[in-house]
Amino acid sequence: MQVPRPLHLLTSIVEALQAAVARRRERLALQQQQFGMVRAEVEALNRWQEEVECLDVGGQRFHARSAVLSGHADHYLSALVSGNFAAAREADDSLFIDRDPQHFALILQHLREGTTSVPHGAAARGQLRREAQYYGLSESMGLSGTRTCLFAVGESAAIYDSNTRQWVEIEKPQPCRRLGDFDDFRPWGGRLVRILFNRASIVSRIPSEFFVGVFNAMSWRWDVLDVIPSPDPQHLASVGSRLFCQVSPSFLEYQGNGHWERLPGMIVDREEGFSGLCALGDSLVVVGGYHPSPQITLASVEQFSLSERKWVQLPDMLCARIHPCVTVWQGKLIVAGGQDSLNEDMYSVECFDPISGVWQPMPSLPHTDYVVQLVVF
């Protein structure tokens, strides 16, 4: 057996030590990097916690960031955390509010998301309305006490009388002058919006352009807000300050200045332009439509959660429908009209309670001339 010469042995030892030192340095650098990341996260968490207010509402604790509590126009909670007024704090630095805490989570939800979830039952809705009035948020939450009415508008117009549970004919208002023929208008941030198209494109035979139009109450016309980047937009919907457009075969969210972001695809394959769309709480809901293969009229209902950014299936409607009209009224999803699997016009109306998860029939419309759009006003 050949014995390594002393110089070779010494060289091998030095190289092994250098490699060990290099590995140790790499591990140390990685540990320092990880420590820096953890430290930054802890510092960010500490800063975030410093901005959090603890509210003791009738003995129940709620936590919210100061920016959330002061983000809307002037109201009781924004004044409470502003520092402009003397507010007595408890020993743990919390702020005590001598009110019933039952519906306070819905108050915070409105401040965080800009939406209003109305509880089931007249008594609970009355309690929420009183709390909203106390906190100075009645107008913001749409609970000022003004009665909301459900209209069916088409060639004729009718209003739903919730006392007699009957539809009553009313005189149809004159239509607004506009660029296009889309009758599907929606509320968005205190304004009315609709899809408009450029009639000149028909005459010049160039590809059609579609726009988001905003109603101008001064001129009684529709002003153009922005271009919709799709040759075939279907419906608009809004959730708080967020605006969405259904395009075939998906959805876009408006980001401002001509920018739109595409949402994930739905669970059920639906033919373009045959389903109904509206906002329910902090989500979008798509009802009915047409399955292309096999050719089936759908009773399917899907809900897209904006916070989780995913679609979930809700219970099917009582009737399968294409081109249904849909809106939310008194916390319930209302679906009316459309066509059945034989393309026959439908007169029926049904409602979905998101709390119980049950569909129930409502009185049918006298005839289908009413059903172009359901409007809550």
Automatic annotation (TrEMBL):
Matches recorded under Pfam families: BTB_2, Kelch_1
Keyword Repeat annotated: yes
Residue ranges annotated for the BTB domain, each copy included: 55-120
GO terms of biological process kind: protein homooligomerization
Keywords in alphabetical order: Kelch repeat, Repeat
SUPFAM superfamilies: Kelch motif, POZ domain
UniProt-listed PROSITE patterns: BTB
Listed InterPro entries: BACURD1-3, BTB/POZ_dom, Kelch-typ_b-propeller, Kelch_1, SKP1/BTB/POZ_sf, T1-type_BTB
Identification of the protein by name: BTB domain-containing protein
Lineage: Eukaryota, Discoba, Euglenozoa, Euglenida, Spirocuta
